[in-house]
Design a protein that fits this description.
The complex is a heterodimer of chains A (273) and B (287). Chain A is an alpha/beta fold and 273 residues long. Chain A has eleven helices and seven strands. Chain A has helices spanning 15-22, 30-42, 46-66, 86-93, 106-115, 134-138, 141-146, 174-183, 202-210, 225-229, 260-263; strands spanning 72-76, 98-103, 123-128, 154-158, 190-196, 236-237, 265-271. The longest helix of chain A has 21 residues, at 46-66. Chain B is α/β, with parallel strands linked by helices. Helices cover 45% and strands 13% of the residues of chain B. Classes of the chains: A alpha/beta (273), B alpha/beta (287).
Chain lengths: 273, 287
């Protein structure tokens, strides 16, 4: 079910703002902090996980820009800006990099427009659209204006897909949606995914998913390694493959407390041949 | 080490304290452990980190060497020294708004400034002519010299938008359409003001959006708001509230959160437009 939100509801936790609380940001409301604490009570590692995931994103984007030579990025489910942002990392490697940020919440786009300023050589664009409507992103004037879809693009689905449940009514699965996006990208493009998983701490995730999570604003579908691997179907995983985010080409010591069970995520990048 | 006239720590002191706290956290030491290194109590260290008080050079050096960051002692001590000197605005004490803190220091140290302007263009975005017209309304009893000093203070505050190092703060302003339609000064002043807003908004890092008259959102229920955000993650946002009596500084978390909600509510109004795209009937009319 595509959702485009405009007006904010301060009484209801919002995943983007709750995530900001996880990261130790400042753009959350009391309801988001309360929800964040509830999640933390069930999943004590969540704040470590958010930081490990963010650090992975930094390393991955740097690798995509510096090693894979990618100059175009699409980031879906941008969330509240957190420095350094994706375009800052990429443009530090290559100032002419172009980035399209999309989110289904208008306020997140307003934040992005106001707080993210790119290089004069590059371009950044902001699009209010929902991941569940691929055409609304892939065919948008904003995206077409900034990106050349005949040249490689990195599609970043960072901590997004576990909010996307397979739709029992329409039969559309998260895999169908990812495949739609990948099909629109030329050979040499990359797909980046980080995703919450029950694989490292089954009892905890059994407890979390069997309870009612509606009040925390953290609903969706967590997936196993097998299920996450199949998002990359037909693509070539980049070394070291699908691993916990803190184990993906680490460039320093793993942050304290970032055990596999605490972080409970898989992260990987694959290339479209 | 002077404190502001209210006895509250100045912005510079808060930032130094926050930096020390960040260095301690990065070194993985608790307040108790670091205090023991210094031969002082945890509460004394807490005051140093919270208010930037009691930062003698010897103490700062000992702390930083305990954190393995001796290399940064020079920079921190230079900040401490700078913080002990009065700010440039001290010379404007006669026309400074009544405020419990060193207001302009708070403004100058912010790296994000969010503004909500329900009725008039905010100080930081005013042209001198607009500022003068407004000051005359506010202080009808004052002579030209005093008014000129007030305008000078407004203009000097705006220098932070022009500075090179540190980079100017990111400015994100929401102006009610009413603030642009209301004629402060005369039509010429307003045309100049509008042109100035468009020029400012063309800079990277300055966003000015106009909230249309027919929309309803939470911020309508308060007056003008200026939210200041600082770089150290440990330093909370502050809100400046402009009243007839002066400027209130709010740093209580629960209160600041209410203003963040109000600002976000105004920011997410679907029909707001960037100032570059905003057009009005009076602009083309000749006064």
């Amino acid at each position: 079910m595509p959702v485009l939100e405009e007006q904010i509801d301060a009484n209801r936790p919002d995943p983007a703002r709750v995530y900001d609380w996880f990261l130790g940001g400042k753009s959350f409301f009391p309801a988001d902090e309360a929800a964040g604490r509830q999640v933390q009570a069930m999943w004590p590692g969540v704040r470590v996980a958010a930081r490990a995931n963010r650090a992975f994103l930094h390393r991955a984007v740097r690798w995509l820009a510096a090693e894979a030579g990618i100059r175009q990025f699409v980031d879906i489910g941008t969330g509240v800006p957190t420095e350094p942002n994706l375009h800052q990392i990429a443009q530090a490697e290559a100032p002419d990099t172009r980035v399209v940020y999309t989110d289904n919440r208008l306020i997140v786009l307003r934040y992005a427009e106001a707080l993210m300023t790119g290089t004069p050589e590059g371009r950044t664009a902001y699009l209010h659209a929902d991941f569940c409507e691929p055409a609304s992103i892939l065919d948008s004037a904003e995206l077409r204006d900034v990106l050349d879809l005949s040249r490689p693009v990195a599609l970043c689905l960072n901590a997004l897909l576990h909010y996307i449940a397979d739709d029992p009514v329409t039969g559309v699965t998260a895999h169908d949606l990812v495949a739609r996006y990948v099909a629109a990208l030329p050979s040499g493009s990359y797909l980046l995914i980080t995703h919450v998983t029950p694989d490292f701490d089954a009892p905890t995730w059994e407890r979390i998913t069997s309870g009612d999570r509606g009040h925390t604003g953290q609903t969706g579908q967590i997936r196993t390694r097998e299920q996450i691997l199949s998002f990359f179907e037909g693509m070539e995983l980049v070394e070291p493959g699908l691993v916990p985010p803190q184990d993906w080409r680490p460039d320093g010591p793993v942050p304290a407390g970032a055990t596999h069970a605490a972080v409970s995520m898989w992260a990987g990048i694959a290339r479209r041949p | 080490m002077p404190v502001s006239r209210s006895g509250r720590p100045t912005a510079a002191q808060l930032l130094i304290g926050a930096r020390l706290r960040q260095l301690r956290t990065e070194a993985g030491l608790s307040t108790r452990q670091a205090a023991a290194e210094l031969g002082t109590s945890a509460s004394a260290l807490h005051r140093m980190e919270g208010h930037g008080v009691g930062l003698e050079p010897g103490r700062v050096r000992r702390l930083l060497s305990a954190y393995g960051r001796e290399g940064e002692a020079g920079a921190v001590l230079a900040d401490v020294e700078r913080a002990s000197r009065p700010g440039w605005w001290d010379a404007y004490r006669d026309v400074l708004p009544r405020s419990p803190a060193d207001l302009i220091g708070l403004e100058e140290h912010a790296y994000v400034i969010r503004l909500y302007a329900p009725a008039v263009v905010p100080d930081l975005l005013q042209t001198p002519a607009y500022a003068e017209a407004l000051q005359r309304v506010r202080h009808p009893e004052e002579d030209d010299r005093r008014i000129a000093r007030r305008v000078e203070l407004v203009v000097r505050r705006q220098a932070l938008l022009e500075r090179a190092d540190p980079a100017p703060p990111v400015v994100w302003a929401l102006l009610e359409e009413a603030a642009l339609r209301r004629r402060v000064g005369d039509a010429e002043v307003m045309r100049g003001q509008l042109a100035h807003l468009r020029l400012l908004a063309a800079r990277p890092g300055v966003t000015i959006r106009v909230v249309p008259m027919y929309t309803v959102h939470t911020a309508l229920l308060c007056g003008p708001v200026q939210l200041l955000r600082y770089r150290p993650a440990t330093l909370p946002d502050r809100v400046l509230l402009h009243t007839l009596d002066g400027i209130e500084v709010e740093d209580r978390r629960d209160v600041v959160a209410q203003y963040l909600i109000a600002l976000d509510s105004a920011a997410s109004v679907p029909d707001s437009v960037p100032i570059s795209a905003w057009r009005t009937d009076w602009e083309d009319a000749r006064a």
